[in-house]
Specification:
CATH topology of the largest domain in chain B: Four Helix Bundle (Hemerythrin (Met), subunit A)
Oligomer: heterodimer
Order of helices and strands of chain A: HHHH
Strand content of chain A: under 5%
Largest sheet of chain B: none
Number of strands of chain A: 0
Helix content of chain B: 55-70%
Radius of gyration of chain A: 23 Å
Strand content of chain B: under 5%
Largest interface: A-B, 67 and 79 residues
Structural class of chain A: mainly alpha
Shape of chain B: elongated
Largest sheet of chain A: none
Number of domains of chain B: 2
CATH superfamily of the largest domain in chain B: Cytochrome c oxidase, subunit III, four-helix bundle
Chain lengths: 130, 293
């Protein structure tokens, strides 16, 4: 493994890739800028894309930030392919898990509405109605 | 193999290499791979809570739109910045450890520790505020408008349970459905027949919203579910921060004591990976909880 890995042994025979301090600092700068952007878009009225649009913008920015942290801070960019594979497979399962759960809960929403329509005073998760 | 370099630089470091590994590099690669597998399970653990969040929000968008007004956006942003900086310092500490600069590494780890403590301090301020305001989960939730302490279930008048399906009780249990004022006044007067707390979850207004009552947009019920999600997600995250701080304190001490060399700093690198994961989770938590709009 390490024979074909030029990054591993370049700096003073140290283990793993030594990320230049400049790259780390630029990553931090990028993260801070993106944090400002994600907060900023919530304050600018003409950037309001509605509840769903705003959610996707926020998730997109968060994913870019997460990618920066993973690629440079966590050395993902310099690791052998098995590490990104572990991460990507995990994220696929997360998406599958959340996606299927949302589809399922959406599928039975009509039954809940029907149940409530019988008697408007009953509200399924309402703890205070006892 | 990289294993040829230690023989020249520091043969003493080879005592850290377990007998089933050929070289420090091979051992380090195995540790990195194992750590990432652990991080994968951590991601899946948090995925359960993100799933909870997604299902709740998809089915009750109005609760999330409404309740996030109670979270402090500046404090959330401050914590994001603090955590990002701590991620940078710990990454720089790993770099210093790789290069054999133990003293620099220990100082950077100390800075990370300070950032982590700062994060928890801000979190404490936020939690304390919510505790005082009664912005909690389930039965513990109190309306910010309610003056009186929460009534126990025994104190709730029987008539409030809407067993009589008259127009009045329907209006009291579902004030957002009524177009008349009485339900709102009942929710605001401590001396009313019905304790304000019994109506609080349904007759809740955001602090910045005007005190007009009866309009459906300003009456959101079951806001306590948002705070259940909020405390579960940030609580589990804060627990991870706490564990991370303990680990960082440990490796700071070990680094300061000179336990690590360029050929053996596995604990530093692994704790750093863990700390970055804590940062990653917060990167998603911050916009999902604080920046709903």
């Amino acid at each position: 493994m390490s024979t074909s890995d030029p990054d591993s042994a370049t700096h003073h025979g140290s283990l793993g890739h030594v990320v230049p301090l400049r790259v780390l600092a630029l990553t931090l700068a990028g993260l801070l800028v993106l944090t400002a952007v994600t907060v900023g878009v919530t304050m600018v009225p003409w950037l309001d894309l509605g509840p769903v649009g705003n959610l996707w913008v926020a998730l997109l920015i968060a994913t870019i930030k997460a990618a920066l942290v993973a690629l440079y801070f966590m050395h993902l960019r310099y690791e052998k392919p098995i590490i990104p594979i572990i991460l990507v497979v995990t994220l696929c399962f997360v998406i599958l898990f959340i996606g299927l759960s949302m589809m399922d809960s959406r599928a039975y929403q009509p039954s809940i509405r029907e149940y409530r329509a019988v008697d408007p005073t009953r509200y399924a998760p309402d703890l205070y109605n006892r | 193999m990289i294993g040829n370099s230690p023989s020249t630089s520091a043969s003493a470091d080879l005592r850290h290499v377990a007998h089933h590994f050929e070289s420090p590099a091979q051992q380090f690669d195995a540790a990195v791979q194992g750590m990432w597998l652990f991080l994968a399970t951590e991601i899946l653990l948090f995925a359960g809570l993100f799933c909870l969040y997604a299902v709740f929000r998809a089915n009750n968008p109005e609760i999330f739109q409404h309740a996030h007004h109670y979270l402090s956006k500046p404090l959330g942003a401050l914590n994001t910045v603090v955590l990002l900086c701590s991620s940078f310092t710990v990454a720089a500490a790993v770099r210093a450890a790789q290069l054999g600069r133990s003293r620099q590494s220990a100082i950077l780890l100390g800075l990370t520790l300070a950032c982590g403590l700062g994060f928890l301090a801000v979190k404490y301020v936020e939690y304390q505020h919510k505790w005082k305001e009664g912005l909690l989960w389930g039965f513990h939730f109190r309306s910010p408008e309610a003056e009186t302490p929460p009534a126990s279930a025994a104190e709730v008048p029987v008539t409030a349970s809407a067993s009589t399906a008259g127009a009045d009780s329907a209006a009291l249990t579902r004030p957002e459905q009524s177009d008349s004022a009485p339900s709102a006044t009942a929710a605001e007067e401590p001396s009313a027949t019905f304790r304000p707390v019994t109506l609080a979850p349904r007759g809740l207004r955001a602090p910045d919203e005007p005190a007009r009552a009866g309009t459906p947009q300003q009456q959101v019920r079951n806001v306590q579910t948002f705070f259940a999600v909020y405390f579960l997600m940030t609580g589990l995250h804060a627990l991870h921060v706490l564990v991370g701080l303990g680990l960082i304190a440990w490796i700071t001490w070990r680094t300061w004591a000179g336990a690590f060399t360029p050929l053996y700093f596995t604990p530093v690198a692994m704790v750093a990976l863990y700390w970055h994961l804590v940062d990653l989770i917060w990167i998603y938590l911050f916009p999902l909880l604080y920046l709903i709009h």
